[in-house]
Structures are given as structure tokens and as C-alpha cells.
Design goal:
Elements (H helix, E strand, L loop, with lengths): L1 E2 L5 E5 L7 E6 L5 E6 L4 E4 L38 E3 L4 E3 L4 E3 L4 E2 L4 H4 L29 E2 L7 E2 L17 H8 L4 H5 L27 E3 L7 E3 H7 L4 H11 L10 H22 L4 H18 L3
Antiparallel strand pairs: 1-2, 2-3, 3-4, 4-5, 6-7, 7-8, 8-9, 10-11, 12-13
Length: 307
């Protein structure tokens, strides 16, 4: 058996049945949607709704009609988001708890959530859905998945979008030089004085952020990724739900920039920086040192990570 990211099954070899090798085709959420034999013939396929329920009346190969028949060569328990399906309980096993696709909820509480953590950060107050310990991926299964059953993660639809504005981006070293001796609030309001006030839903964030020359910073971990520091410093610390509100607010006015991967990527990285790096330092350092040291440490750790 060959597995890919998050142990999602890609290929299975079984010498008991013929054909000997089966190839599993997944969609962007990791759903096992079809299986092919070693000759390229599709044995059957499955379709799911957003929360993992199978569509009624879906077609499968006439030769292999019953997925749950163990005598069939293409039998597999793997299905929605590549998790294992229990035919006795009709539940999926997500490693730490079971999930019911018929109601779109886990059947056990989220132990991490009981402690008030979202993806490792104490930002539960910014995500009311996390107050329910049984929800699946914050009720947003189109852009999130939860391979471990307790920390859901973003699905980036188009990673290339994270390289936008790379021709305008500066190195993280240059950004560090720029922020030396400045506070977080200094950077958040750096270009506010030169920006006209907006009357749109996103007016709370309009005009804020670092000067345009320092808005885009190359990710030390991957030179093909760019941080939008306006999202990073302003929206990220407010939590992912605030970021989603901003993207929705952009739709009527800035359709081209709404819901792109760079915005969500920068929001997520800004949230990680704020709770893991900035807040701990802010308690015992002055505002200037806390801001500079936390950004420096964040960039240094990113540079040390494997791409």
C-alpha cells in the first residue's frame, strides 16, 4: 500500500484478487472518488456532498457494484477525505474521534477545543462556531479539512496565488530594518494619513497597514510565496472569521482580489505570529522591542523550516 500526504491512500497491492494493483483517485479535499486497475480501467466511482454524504443513485461499474462486499477486488474502507468508513456504524474514523456524514457533525467532543485552542492558538473568541465542540471544520467543508479530528486546516485552492506581487516584494531583512524602533500600531497606521476614508464594509481596515513600499515581503521559507503585511498585521490577529468577513466585503467592490489564496495565507500566518510570538513577548518587553523581536523570531523560524 502506498500513501501520500496525511497518510491518504494512493495505491494498494493485493495478491489475493485480480487485478493485483488498484489506483485511488482523489479530489482536492482528498475524497476517494474513483478506483482504477493496473490497466487503466475504472472499476467504480463515488460522489459526495460537502459534508461527506453520498449522493443517491450514483453509478458504479456493473462488475463491482457493492463497495462493502469484501469479495470484490476493489473494496476499500477509504472514502470521504480519505478517512476510513465503518460499515457497521456508518461513521468515518478521523483518528481521534468519529464523524457522522449524515448530520455533518463529530460524535465526540473536540478535546483541543475544550481547552480553547484553534489550530494551536487561543483565538476561540474570534470564531463562535468553535464554541460547539462537535462541528466539522467550522461548518466550512469547501476550504477546510480535518485529517486528525481535532485541528482543521486550510485547503489552498491555488498555491500560485501566494506569489502575487512578488515583483513588488522586499526581503524580510529589509522589512526588519524598516520596523526597527517602531511598534505594531505604528506599522498598522503607517499609510493611514494618506488614504481617503472608505464607506464600504471593509472601511475598518481601509488605508491601514505599512507603507506601500513595505507591504509585500518574501516568505523566508519559500521565495515563491509572498506575505501581504496589511493582512498579516491587521486582519490576521483578529482571527480567521474576521478575515472571511473582509473577503466577503470585498466581493461587490474588489472581485479580483476577493477570496484569493494570498489573503488567506497572510491572515493565517499573521494569526500564528500574533499568538505564538508577539503576545508572549508583549507581556515583559516594551512595545518597540516586542514587535521587532517577535517579527524577527517568526521570520527566523520560517527560514529554518523545510520548504
Amino acid at each position: 500500500m502506498t500513501k501520500g500526504k496525511e497518510n491518504r491512500i494512493l495505491k494498494s497491492s493485493d495478491r489475493t484478487f485480480s487485478p493485483n494493483e488498484l489506483y485511488f483517485i482523489r479530489d482536492y479535499l482528498g475524497n476517494i472518488k474513483s478506483i482504477f486497475d493496473e490497466n487503466g480501467e475504472m472499476l467504480y466511482y463515488r460522489l459526495y456532498d460537502e459534508f461527506g454524504g453520498e449522493f443517491e443513485g450514483q453509478s458504479r461499474s456493473q462488475d463491482y457494484t457493492d463497495q462493502n462486499d469484501l469479495t470484490q477486488p476493489c473494496f476499500t474502507p477509504f472514502g470521504f477525505t480519505s478517512r476510513e468508513f465503518d460499515e457497521i456504524t456508518d461513521l468515518y474514523f478521523y483518528r481521534s474521534r468519529y464523524y457522522d456524514p449524515q448530520i455533518g457533525r463529530f460524535t465526540q467532543r473536540d478535546k483541543f477545543n475544550e481547552a480553547g485552542f484553534i489550530t494551536g492558538n487561543p483565538a476561540v473568541i474570534y470564531n463562535p462556531l468553535q464554541l460547539n465542540d462537535y462541528t466539522y471544520v467550522g461548518n466550512n467543508p469547501l476550504i477546510y479539512t480535518d485529517p486528525w479530528g481535532y485541528i482543521y486546516e486550510k485547503i489552498w485552492k491555488n498555491p500560485k496565488e501566494r506569489s502575487k506581487h512578488i515583483d513588488q516584494a522586499i526581503s524580510y531583512e529589509k522589512f526588519l530594518t524598516h520596523i526597527k524602533g517602531k511598534t505594531l500600531n505604528d506599522l498598522r497606521n503607517e499609510r493611514l494619513k494618506n488614504k481617503k476614508k472608505s464607506k464600504t464594509i471593509i472601511s475598518l481596515f481601509s488605508g491601514k497597514g505599512p507603507d506601500s513600499k513595505y507591504r509585500y515581503v518574501i516568505d523566508p521559507k519559500n521565495p515563491n510565496q509572498v506575505f501581504d503585511m496589511r493582512h498579516f498585521l491587521i486582519i490576521g490577529p483578529l482571527g480567521e472569521q474576521a478575515g472571511l468577513v473582509v473577503e466577503i466585503g470585498q466581493l461587490p467592490f474588489h472581485k479580483d482580489s476577493a477570496f484569493d489564496a494570498q489573503d488567506f495565507f497572510s491572515n493565517k500566518m499573521g494569526q500564528d505570529w500574533f499568538y505564538k510570538y508577539y503576545l508572549p513577548k508583549r507581556f515583559y518587553k516594551n512595545p518597540e522591542d516586542a514587535f521587532y523581536d517577535s517579527i524577527n523570531r517568526f521570520f527566523t523560524d520560517r527560514k529554518c523550516e523545510e520548504s
